[in-house]
Design goal:
This protein has 19 helices and twelve strands. By secondary structure, it is mainly α. α11 packs across α13. The protein binds one RNA strand through α4, β7, α6, β12 and α10.
RNA sequence: GGUCCCAUCGUCUAGCCUGGCCUAGGACGGAGCCCUCUCAAGGCUUAAACACGGGUUCAAAUCCCGUUGGGACCA
């Protein structure tokens, strides 16, 4: 049994796209499950659109989602000579030929053929002319088989038949000496001993063009798997209009990498009714058999739900770590420095059920960072009224009488006061909540006090009373 | 235009290969109720789908053919 070798081969023409991450993810899962090798290859032969920043973005994105590769990153621009050598070999073997047809002529002939109702493929004019490339401006074409058929047994879609009659003699080297996509891919996959080519569905019809090239070059033909596309809510290919498509944008929006991976893998793959998977589980349970054959619509709401699930269930220390850069980004650098790791973790535990993203969490955590807390005018006017001031003062006095904070004890004292005053719980709880957090919504009051500690609780309560008396 | 792919609730999907267990299950989102110091979380309930038409069969979401509709690639 030969070792599984798969690859992810993005073009560095922008940021790392969500669709790309999913393709990488399926390859990675398969490699890890099979104890195989995952290769990262940068397809940058389109020199006009490729940039170094994009390469960095790809690497950064892959690292963030935790998809580690075993070989690479290779860059195709560093391998151009390999492609030329292999092209020349095909020429020597009589499996390629020089073509001097000009683009305009080809276009004209194609239109003509179409008008006559014929297929618009290359008419093979130069196929048997035995031309050389003396002028240095000829393109090299592959002599594609014209008879029989190519059978692709796709890992996902099953057996697909392609008739060779309709196959074109593809250009493999352009007149400028640069290889075309379909050729460089085959040379690389061949030389890198790729056993399973798993890529987007948009490459499906490239497969019957590539298979004969593998054969002509003497490479074993890999297995192929074609993943369905990801669509936007209008069922059009996912693009910026549907919201963020860059993986790093999701980092900035406060998504956890594990949540991202979980969502993306479930978008097109299933394991019965299970929704949440650890990485280890994914590696164990993944199979091509349950990869969906049809395109899937990207659903931000479900992603948000999964993210919330991960925020709730991930180790709080990990969430706290991920939260730090966002807190700093929100201008809370000093506050973050003055809180201990344990303290921050405690805050995460306090609010994790309420925050669906880390960005939301920043806002939830904010009231618990300083000594005092800001209370908006409007909120204060509504809850910190002179009418409640006396009750708040009584509460303060009773809390002050307690030497140390004890959740149970303070809650008892609180409820007793409510009873004595003949009011409802909420009538006292809301003003206290506002005094302690500056908000009308917060975690449970006594959890809040626990996190604030005795001193800050009393301090904020006093401030609240002061404000209520002034109203 | 040619070739190829695809088709179950609004969305992600289970079931399809190996027909009967499907009065089609789960999840997100929606609606309602419960819990409740607020907001969440949680629990319970609920609406919501086999694209259409033929066939095969005692029986079809499941197999076959066609139609329609989406999509990809080629240039």
């Amino acid at each position: 049994m030969t070792q599984v070798r798969v690859r992810f081969a993005p073009s560095p023409t922008g940021f790392l796209h969500i669709g790309g991450v999913r393709t990488a993810l399926f390859n990675w899962l398969f490699a890890r499950q099979q104890k195989g090798v995952f290769v990262l290859r940068i397809e940058d032969t389109d020199r006009t659109r490729s940039t170094d920043e994009s390469i960095q973005a790809i690497i950064e994105g892959m690292k963030w989602v935790g998809l580690d590769w075993d070989e690479g990153p290779f860059r195709q621009t560093e391998r151009v000579n390999l492609y030329r050598d292999h092209a020349m070999r095909l020429l020597e073997q009589g499996q390629a030929y020089w073509c001097v047809c000009k683009a305009e002529d080809l276009e004209a002939r194609r239109k003509e053929a179409e008008a006559k109702g014929l297929s618009p493929k290359y008419d093979g004019r130069c196929r048997n002319r035995g031309l050389t490339n003396q002028a240095g401006d000829a393109a090299l074409r592959f002599k594609a088989p014209q008879e029989g058929e190519i059978v692709v047994d796709d890992l996902i879609k099953g057996k697909i038949l392609f008739d060779n009659h309709v196959q074109d003699d593809l250009i493999i080297l352009r007149s400028n000496g640069y290889p075309t996509y379909n050729f460089s891919v085959v040379v690389d996959d061949g030389l890198m001993n790729i056993t399973h080519v798993v890529r987007g569905d948009d490459h499906l019809t490239n497969t019957p063009r590539q298979v004969p090239i593998f054969q002509a070059l003497g490479f074993p033909v890999p297995r192929f798997g074609h993943l369905p596309m990801i669509l936007g809510s209008d069922k059009a290919r996912l693009s910026k209009r549907h919201g963020a498509t860059s993986i790093m944008a999701y980092k900035e929006m406060g998504y956890l990498p594990d949540a991202m991976v979980n969502y993306l893998v479930r978008l097109g793959w299933s394991y019965g009714d299970q929704e949440i998977f650890s990485r280890q589980e994914l590696i164990e349970k993944f199979s091509w058999k349950h990869v969906q054959t049809s395109a899937a619509v990207f659903n931000p709401e479900k992603l948000l739900w999964i993210n919330a699930e991960y925020i709730k269930s991930s180790p709080p220390t990990r969430v706290a770590q991920a939260l730090v850069p966002l807190l700093e980004g929100a201008g809370l650098r000093d506050e973050v420095r003055s809180i201990s790791d344990d303290g921050l973790t405690q805050l995460v535990v306090l609010v994790k059920e309420r925050a669906k993203t880390l960005v939301e969490m920043v806002d939830w955590v904010r009231p618990y960072l300083g000594q005092s807390v800001a209370v908006e005018e409007e909120v204060a006017r509504k809850f910190l009224t002179p009418a409640v001031a006396p009750t708040l003062s009584k509460l303060l006095a009773r809390f002050e009488a307690l030497p140390a904070f004890s959740k149970q004890q303070w809650e008892e004292v609180f409820k007793q006061l409510v009873e004595e005053e003949g009011i409802k719980m909420g009538q006292l709880a809301q003003p206290v909540r506002v005094a302690l957090t500056g908000r009308t919504a917060s975690p449970g009051l006594f959890e809040v006090m626990e996190v604030l500690g005795r001193n800050r609780t009393l301090f904020r309560l006093r401030q609240g009373i002061e404000r209520a008396s002034r109203m």
